[in-house]
Design a protein that fits this description.
The chain has a domain at 12-50 and 106-190. The protein has helices spanning 12-49, 63-78, 85-90, 94-99, 106-113, 124-142, 152-166, 168-177, 180-190. The protein has 196 residues and is mainly α. It is globular.
């Protein structure tokens, strides 16, 4: 549900604080999903391609996507950090990780991942679409941009669903501690006139 004021308006200060609080609460879900997805991709593709540097597999990735992982490797080396395959994946862009779930990689990646999901992931298209929405939300929050125009209830649901697919127990733990729904409900009752 997006933010729309009806008869009660939040002051600019209340709105700023609400955005900051919602961003912080959502960031917990985003961080857990992002880390879990990266680990899942790395572990599954390492097994499928029998190498922990799976992105170097011939004809697997486009030149651009392969260069994204190579850039991550070079950056780690320049920072004088240990260059391990898992760190390369964790330091690559989140957009690149999401791109690995796109139609272009349906056969080479998605079909390889299917046997490693702990629960049925549904259609690739649905997973990819939701993951892209989360990436967009993540980027807005990372740049302190307004988020109240978004359907935050939907975003929260997507985060929970995607994490459940990758790690059901972790998803339940995050949900138990989440403040997102309380913040959205409080904002709806106190300031937005029911439109958030």
């Amino acid at each position: 549900m997006s933010y729309k004021s009806n008869h009660h308006k939040l002051s600019i200060y209340e709105k700023s604080i609400l955005i900051a609080e919602l961003s912080a609460a959502l960031w917990v879900h985003i961080a857990v999903f992002e880390i879990t997805l990266r680990k899942f991709l790395h572990s599954s593709l390492s097994k499928s391609y029998k190498t922990n540097r799976w992105w170097l597999t011939s004809n697997l990735l486009t030149a651009k996507d392969r260069a994204g992982f190579e850039y991550s490797e070079k950056r780690l080396a320049l920072q004088k950090r240990k260059v391990t395959p898992i760190l390369v994946v964790h330091n690559s862009s989140f957009s690149l990780c999401i791109e690995l779930l796109s139609k272009r990689y349906h056969q080479k990646i998605w079909m390889k991942l299917l046997k490693y999901f702990p629960t049925y992931p549904g259609r690739r298209e649905d997973f990819y679409k939701r993951a892209r929405e989360i990436r967009n939300l993540r980027n807005l929050i990372a740049h302190h941009a307004p988020i109240l125009h978004r359907n935050l209830l939907r975003d929260h649901q997507y985060l929970h669903e995607l994490t459940m697919i990758l790690d059901p127990q972790l998803a339940q733990e995050v949900q138990k501690r989440s403040r997102v729904l309380d913040l959205l409900l409080n904002a709806r009752l106190v300031g937005s006139g029911g439109g958030i």
